[in-house]
């Protein structure tokens, strides 16, 4: 009998309906675009003798990076943060000599980290940020006690894939890698390094030319099924969609770019914790003159008397004077900002109804011994793969048998735990909060009669995680947990003002990205900008760092201050060194000399008889007429 992990049928239903919906929608709205309001850049410019000022609300990765970039461009910048630490979700938890990454723990797309520091006149190395490569990338554990090792080492990948799909499987893997590389390069050039100011921004020839190369209307699971013919490998190469807070059965195929960066560039970890990156950006910002005010929650963003311009912030503490500036950049959760920090609006209310990413139950366990069976990054996949995602994204609950991620920072950074011990983080994806104005569960069409009882769900998740790890690794884990910290959807919401406790902001389905995603500038309030997971270009620390560059340049261009940009602006050509004799591009030999000889002989034997026949016919000899 063929098991569920041995399916060899590559056929998956086509998804062309979404393409028709997209173009029908586009055709309908293009005539309306000419009526969209257009911002006039430079409506008011500071006197040349004055130094422009900016307030950044929130010291998350995006806020800190934007503050440093504005300061490098000559702005007087103040960052106000509700917590007593920087980084937001990208922060640390310390417990009796153990250190845990509260949120992100995998450094992907390293080019955006290097670029951020280089644009600010420094580097990760110069700021004391040491990156170590995690090898293997992951150990993926299945319910049938098999393990798949993901690695940047092509020979390891060849052996792992051929175990399950033979030599043809490895050839198909190379095809998958080629497609995911294309998704990666096109996305960086045409999405992550471009701002989408309106729907017109999508109607660019260079973007539309590459749109279908990104496979935005096919799921990542569907695309993977083109290359991998067993259910096992389809799962191995699609679970990373969880990083976008999406099911692999819904996430656009574009996001296989995540697999590419992992398999080609590797997974990295900053010694000292992921927060080391944000901490270093804070240090760079302070050297550039940025003032950071922690423990300073604000009541609202202050507007001009006519409500058309952002002028500063008002603190919750009435003893603190309001702070004013020429520009306000909000790094708070977008739905929270629109509905709590700004006057009520239909757009703000619509954000509360938009499709959101998932949340998580995260356990931070201090262990009194090490478990070498665990690598730095581990994935435990549910037996009922699709059903587990349906429970999260349709029912907004926790699956009976969830897939989950285990990070062991002490495996690559011994400073994360006392000698001979391990600190481990377990992230169990769960549904986001479903609440009404009274904070009671309102359900959805999938959850009528169900309640989000987080106490029982946490207990269930804890028991399931321990049992699963013990069974698949053949270890005794529970007795060695000596200290525990837990984050749940309600605590994510209260600690970081995350709407519905969604840890990755708004969803990244096609109609929630590009020009459909909330813009980096407020649609009607001047001098108010946004950076973070729910604005363009999207979620994840490297993507938010890209967004910080986009919004900083937008501010400077809007205020006709592009001459202040100290780095090479996006969209300009990079200066390349003059090529030497060995660097000149040359066309390779298309055909070998033997092929040329054979081709010449073929042409002689086909053209000469034809020419003779034509001459004979013309002369009236009727050479062929007797046949």
From TrEMBL:
Its cofactor is NAD(+). The chain crosses the membrane at residues 593-614. NCBIfam families: crtI_fam. This is Phytoene desaturase. The keyword RNA-binding does not apply. InterPro entries: Amino_oxidase, Carotenoid/retinoid_OxRdtase, FAD/NAD-bd_sf. Belongs to the carotenoid/retinoid oxidoreductase family. The lineage of its organism: Eukaryota, Fungi, Dikarya, Ascomycota, Pezizomycotina. The keyword Transmembrane helix applies. GO terms for biological process: carotenoid biosynthetic process. One of its GO terms (molecular function) is phytoene dehydrogenase activity. Pathway: Carotenoid biosynthesis. Keywords: Carotenoid biosynthesis, Membrane, Oxidoreductase, Transmembrane, Transmembrane helix. Residues 62-343 form the Amine oxidase domain.
């Amino acid at each position: 009998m063929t098991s569920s992990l041995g399916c060899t049928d590559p056929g998956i239903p086509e998804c062309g309906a979404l393409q028709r919906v997209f173009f029908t929608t586009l055709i309908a709205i293009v005539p309306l675009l000419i009526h969209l309001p257009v911002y006039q850049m430079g409506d008011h410019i500071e006197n040349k003798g004055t130094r422009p000022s900016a307030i950044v609300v929130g010291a998350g990765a995006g806020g800190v990076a934007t503050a440093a970039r504005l300061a490098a461009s000559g702005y007087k910048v103040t960052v106000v943060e509700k917590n007593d630490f920087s980084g937001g979700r990208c922060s640390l938890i310390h417990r009796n000599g153990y250190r845990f990454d509260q949120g992100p723990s995998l450094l992907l797309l390293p080019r955006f980290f290097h670029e951020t520091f280089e644009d600010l006149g420094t580097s990760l190395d110069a700021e004391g940020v040491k990156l170590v490569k995690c090898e293997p990338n992951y150990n993926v554990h299945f319910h049938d006690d098999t393990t798949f090792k993901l690695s940047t080492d092509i020979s390891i990948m060849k052996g792992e894939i051929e175990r399950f799909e033979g030599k043809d499987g490895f050839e198909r893997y190379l095809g998958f890698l080629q497609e995911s590389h294309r998704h990666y390069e096109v996305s960086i050039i045409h999405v992550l390094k471009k701002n989408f100011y309106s729907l017109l921004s999508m109607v660019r020839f260079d973007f539309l030319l590459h749109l279908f190369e990104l496979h935005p209307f096919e799921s990542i699971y569907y695309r993977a099924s083109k290359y991998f013919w067993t259910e096992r490998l389809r799962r191995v190469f699609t679970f990373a969609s969880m990083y976008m807070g999406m099911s692999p059965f819904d996430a656009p195929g574009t996001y296989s770019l995540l697999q590419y960066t992992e398999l080609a560039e590797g997974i990295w970890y900053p010694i000292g914790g992921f927060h080391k990156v944000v901490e270093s950006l804070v240090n760079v910002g302070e050297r550039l003159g940025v003032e950071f005010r922690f423990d300073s929650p604000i009541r609202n963003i202050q507007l001009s008397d006519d409500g058309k311009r952002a002028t500063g912030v008002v603190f919750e503490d009435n003893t603190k004077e309001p702070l004013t500036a020429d520009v306000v950049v909000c790094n708070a959760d977008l739905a929270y900002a629109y509905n709590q920090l700004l006057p009520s609006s239909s757009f703000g209310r619509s954000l509360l109804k938009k499709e959101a990413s998932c949340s998580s139950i995260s356990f931070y366990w201090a262990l009194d011994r090490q478990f070498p069976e665990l690598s730095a990054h581990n994935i435990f996949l549910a037996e009922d793969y699709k059903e587990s995602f349906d429970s999260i994204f349709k029912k907004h609950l926790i699956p009976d048998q969830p897939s989950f991620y285990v990070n062991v920072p002490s495996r690559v950074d011994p400073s994360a735990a006392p000698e001979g011990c391990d600190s481990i983080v377990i992230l169990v994806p769960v549904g986001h909060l479903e609440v009404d104005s009274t904070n009671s569960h309102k359900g959805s069409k999938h959850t009528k009669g169900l309640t989000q009882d987080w106490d029982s769900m946490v207990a269930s998740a804890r028991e399931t995680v321990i049992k699963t790890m013990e069974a698949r690794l053949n270890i005794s884990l529970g007795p060695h947990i000596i200290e525990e910290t837990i984050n749940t959807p309600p605590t994510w919401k209260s600690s970081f003002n995350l709407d519905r406790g969604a840890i990755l902001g708004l969803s990244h389905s096609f109609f929630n990205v590009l020009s459909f995603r909330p813009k980096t500038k407020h649609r009607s309030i001047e001098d108010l900008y946004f950076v973070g997971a729910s604005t363009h270009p999207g979620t994840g620390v490297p993507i938010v760092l890209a967004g910080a560059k986009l919004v900083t340049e937008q501010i400077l261009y809007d205020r006709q201050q592009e001459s202040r940009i100290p780095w090479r602006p996006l969209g300009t050509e990079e200066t390349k060194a003059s090529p030497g004799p060995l660097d000149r591009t040359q066309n390779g030999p298309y055909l070998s000399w033997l092929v040329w000889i054979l081709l010449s002989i073929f042409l002689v034997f086909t053209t000469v008889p034809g020419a003779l026949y034509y001459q004979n016919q013309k002369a009236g000899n009727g050479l062929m007429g007797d046949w």
